[in-house]
TrEMBL record:
UniProt key word Acetylation: no
Domain of life per record: Bacteria
TM region(s), chain numbering: none
Keywords for this protein: DNA-binding, Transcription, Transcription regulation
The protein's name: Metalloregulator ArsR/SmtB family transcription factor
SUPFAM superfamilies, A to Z: Winged helix' DNA-binding domain
Annotated HTH arsR-type domain residues: 29-121
Species name: Candidatus Nesterenkonia stercoripullorum
Molecular functions per Gene Ontology: DNA binding; DNA-binding transcription factor activity
Amino acid sequence: MTTPTDVATAGKMKVAARDECCALFAGPVGIADAERIASLLKALSDPTRLRLLSHVAAQGCQSVCACDLTETLGISQPTVSHHMKKLVDAGLLTREQRGRWAHYSVVLSTFAELRAFLDID
């Protein structure tokens, strides 16, 4: 026998399930946007690049010298250069040459673009 409490509980479960559904706010993406986002996500799909990027992003608006990344993260200079080039080419970081060292900064607009794409309601 179904009681009023059972009916109320079932109704709450349906509402809760509906509230847990999600959708991309902006709707489906077009070909050009999908290619752009895929290239950003591809650049982020490497653990070494994520470590490097997180180190640069942790500095806020200050640039980070490549010379500081090798020892801090225990990564060789050629490896740092290779991965940083991938992040720069993807548009996630900017590179500025100062003397013999490159300095890197986060591109805030690119992260805003990723954030907007990943914003699921």
